[in-house]
Amino acid sequence: MNNLFKIQETLASGSTSKVKKILTIDNKEYALKIMPKCIKDSKSFIKEISIHKSLINTNIIKYIDSYEDLENYYLVMELAKFELHGFIECDIGINPSVVHFLIKQLISGIEYLHNKGICHRDIKPENLLIDSNGTLLISDFGYSTFFRYKGKYRRLKALAGSKEYISPEVANENYDGELCDIWSIGVLLIVLLTGTLPWECPVLEDQRFKTYISMKYHYYPPFTKIRGKILHLIRNILVAEKKRFNINKLKNHPWVLEETTVNKSNIFRLMPIKENFDILFTQPNNINKTSFKTELKLSQPIDNCNQISEQHRFYKNGKIEEVKREIVDLLKYMVVPHDIIDDVITFNTTDTKRGILRGKVFFTKVEDCCYITIRKLKGDYNEFKKFLGIFGENYDEDC
């Protein structure tokens, strides 16, 4: 492996894999996804590789190569500069013109997948990348599968995906592969336009979802932030399977057909840009079958001991001890309960929605700078971004 390329910094770290930047001997940069064999079995790896390498499309991250050794599986991919979720401003979202520009590309990529009989099953901001030209790239095919093979259609049964974005039929383990992706696009639209998730999971135990399906009109946030043609589109996506738009109706909707005002020359002027942030390839932990209605058990084996982590980095000139004391003082000032063990601070607090927000703060000395890594262990992603605001006012972002 070391003869083929030089492994550089970590781009992503999740419970099932790590993604690192690599440099080949001819100075080309790629992304390397590393999957431990103790977590991912050979059958699921072969399936992911066979699907990914068959995909050649402008809006799909390019497959380069794959390897394995005694401990890990390796997937080499095109290196994209940005991740979509890094541009989403909490409670605000992204410029609607940019959303329109990106969704048109997403629809094109998903239509290509569906035409090949493949559904993605994990469409969400973390799995959508953007290159320096503003091209949207669909990534992470770990949950992808065939709903049609050699002309034969099948309904799917396995629970797969991220609970906030899956359709109700996925939660019930009986669904149409194409239409489950369409549902995910509907939830994604809400997140991109408002910076808010409409619910935690599309099951009746989730009060926000129960409210949504019980009402014909939705005069409450986040739906009140969305108007006109876009709201009409979302209403025709987030409905029962038999009423849901298919990909053809989706791409021919009046809002989608509108001429875009965004291009590669102005896209990054219309939304805040964060370079080199930590890309998260999330595949949530296995959940006991009896409780899958509120937290989903997924179809791929993963490590039950590790929680999903999301992290952000800041830095400041100075010694670790000095910066650590400042962070402790800041947490005390914000009345955030915390513990200190060696050079790691663990915090456990309540967010603005009265949910649990738990994480760790790590310190790393690099030359004259102290890097501060804040990692979320539990809690809502948007609430975590709010929490990070108290650090952004006092420290420089690593960007």
From TrEMBL:
It is an enzyme of class 2 (transferase). It holds the Pfam family Pkinase. One of its GO terms (biological process) is intracellular signal transduction. It comes from the Eukaryota. It catalyses: L-threonyl-[protein] + ATP = O-phospho-L-threonyl-[protein] + ADP + H(+); L-seryl-[protein] + ATP = O-phospho-L-seryl-[protein] + ADP + H(+). GO terms for molecular function: ATP binding; protein serine/threonine kinase activity. GO terms for cellular component: cytoplasm. Keywords: ATP-binding, Kinase, Nucleotide-binding, Serine/threonine-protein kinase, Transferase. Its EC number is 2.7.11.1. Transmembrane segments: none annotated. Residues 5-256 form the Protein kinase domain. PROSITE patterns: PROTEIN_KINASE_DOM, PROTEIN_KINASE_ST. Gene3D superfamilies: Transferase(Phosphotransferase) domain 1 (1.10.510.10). This is non-specific serine/threonine protein kinase. It comes from Vairimorpha necatrix.
